[in-house]
Structure formats: C-alpha cells, structure tokens
Amino acid sequence: MTLDMLGCLVGLIYIYQEYKASIWLWLTGIIMPVIYMFVYYEAGLYADFGMQIYYTLAAIYGFLYWKFGPKKGGEREIPITHYPRRLVLPSILVFLLLWGGLYLVLIHFTNSTVPVWDSFGNALSFIGLWALAKKYIEQWWIWIVVDVELAGLYLYKEIPFTAGLYALYAVIAVAGYFKWKRCLRPIPRRSEGTPD
Known about the structure:
With 196 residues, the protein is an all-alpha fold. It has one domain (1-71, 81-183). Helix content is 72%, strand content 0%. It has helices at 3-19, 25-43, 46-68, 88-109, 115-133, 139-156, 160-183.
C-alpha cells in the first residue's frame, strides 16, 4: 500500500470524526500529518510538507481545548458556536500574511513549481484548523474552499488518491456544516424590558 493510499484511509477516518464532532479526530489528526510529510515531500509540495508540523501541534491543542476548554452550564463538551465577527478581519489579515510569507519562502528557498497554490491552501488551512479547534461552525466553509483548491492541486501534482480524498472532503464539508448547524444552540433572544 502506498503512503498516498494509507494517508487517504486515515483521512477518511479523520473527516468522519470531524463530521461527528468527535474529540478523537484530534488523535487521528496527529497520525495523518506524519504520513503526509513523506507524501508531500516526494511530490515537491514543500508548504504542505512544512504545514504537517503545524497540523500535529494544532491537533494536540485541539484535543486539549475540546477536552479541558471552557464548557457552559455543566456540559461535557465544548459547544459549537459561530465565528465571532470581531475576528473576521484579523483572520483575513493573518491569512494574507501567511499566504505571502509562504509564497516567498517557496520561491526563494525551494524548487516548487506551484508556489501560489501550495501557499494558498496551506495559509487558509491554518485559519481553518484554528477555527475547528474553537468549534466555530463556519470552519466548514473555509474547508470547502481549501478542499476544492487542494483537490485540483493534488490532481495536477499526480497524487490521485489524495486528490480524490480532498474532493470527497469538500462534499462531506457541506454535509458537516448542516449537521453542525442542527447541533448549534440557538442564541437566546432578549426579552423586551431586559437591560442591555
């Protein structure tokens, strides 16, 4: 079994766990980057290779946050919430800085043939993984963009199983959004006479 196929199988387990909002996705998320370090290095996708270190660290953070993070009203799990509006502009700025920084590293220090797209998907993944760790429902929309873009990139770089996996991720991300939406606690309305 090639590493591309093995990574694909582990990736399917991961996305199923994410769909179910299972804390075990973070443990799978530690195994998957180790496999993909080898896949991406062989394919010359150096930003993807480097991001696997971030993914491993983010998986550890995500597990600890979901396990020990702030819970409301005695709940056993971190609730699914909305992406705070105050974080949208800073997140866009961080994404643009990461995209530009990764692009510069790729063109100056590697022989990457796809520096724009390799850096784009990884910069946006950085934001998506952070939003997943916080359990923001909008993380699914970020992943839809990432998954479609990376599926095309991996197909171009002749990593067919991983390309197919990311195309499937995009479909599951749409389903995941609607599943998480059903689990989202409605925002309580203020009654008329209640002070702000």
